[in-house]
Amino acid sequence: MAHKISVTGRPTSSIQDYGKYLAFDMEEKGSPNAPKGIPFKSNAITYTVVLSQKQFNKLNITQEEFSQRRLLVQGEPCLDIPFEQCTGEIGVICMQIQEIEDKGKEKTQPKQTPKKGSRAKKQEENKPQEDRQGKEKKQILVPKGTRDWMSLEEIKIPESFLQFTPGIAKQKAVEESIEKNGTVDKPIIIDPETHELLDSYSRYFVAKKKKLERVPVHY
Q1: What is the DSSP string of the chain?
Q2: How far is it, in rounded angstroms, from Cα 138 to Cα 120?
Q3: Is-contact 30 9, C-beta < 8 A?
Q4: How high is the pLDDT of residue 102?
Q5: Can you tell me the distance from the alpha carbon of 72 to that of 47, in angstroms, rounded to the nearest whole number?
Q6: Pairing of strands 45-51, 5-9
Q7: Which of 27, 29, 46, 47 is deepest in the core (most CB within 10 A)?
Q8: What do you get for the CA distance between the two ends of the chain, in Å?
Q9: Region class of 211: left (phi > 0), else alpha (psi between -120 and 50), else beta
Q10: Which residues lie closer than 8 Å to 116 by C-beta, 6 or more apart?
């Protein structure tokens, strides 16, 4: 039977999208005091957690909020994660992941006075559904190879691209990625100095049509 491992803490990196799975780093601090008779300190350990898209979606956490949340990951150590993807000291295959309450944050939040009346009840009934919709709408995954994020206005388009209209199939593939992940499926290739588009015009075309504020870019 494989050894089980549990890691508690906040992510120390952004989510990396590798197509079939996602990965991020977590750090767990060591114990401040070692047992008597043991002359070694317990140091912090960095883990690279690998999880499925389905597991991440169940958390209902946006990309921006993810690094600020405390998580409990239960899984198994893995030695087969590619070296360039496993940036932590130990790789962990996630079996279960859940958000846990931050006790310190909970203490600082003031108690809310319950509202009275039918209007107040109606607001409370509608609030959870609105929150879920907002979280799903804001969720954005970072495509593999992303070097930076840039607004569409900053990207300069050569005249040769403007005369070209991407095919329907290409547009549909990019639109599906935006609906699922909140952004285009791959970074847009630009010149790092002039910010001129070099490749991926179809992704730029659909992003502009969908009125995205920012897109991932690669140099």
Answers
A1: -PPPEEEEE-BSSPPEE-SS-EEEEEEEPPPSSPPTT-------EEEEEEE-HHHHHHH---HHHHTTSEEEEEEEEES-S-TTT--SSEEEEEEEEEEE--HHHHHHSPPPPPP-SHHHHHHHHHHHHHHHHHHHHH--PPPTT--EEEEGGGSB--HHHHT----HHHHHHHHHHHHHHSS-SSPEEB-TTT-BB-S-HHHHHHHHHTT-SEEEEE-
A2: 27
A3: no
A4: 66
A5: 13
A6: unpaired
A7: 47
A8: 45
A9: left
A10: none
Amino acid in the structure at residue 53: Q
Q: Does the predicted model carry a pTM greater than 0.90?
A: no
Q: What is the dihedral of CA 28, 21, 213, 163, to 10 degrees?
A: 150
Residue with structure tokens 């491992």? 5
Which among 25, 7, 24 has a CA at the least distance from the CA of 15? Answer: 24
Phi-psi region of 65 (alpha: psi -120 to 50; beta: other; left: phi over 0): alpha
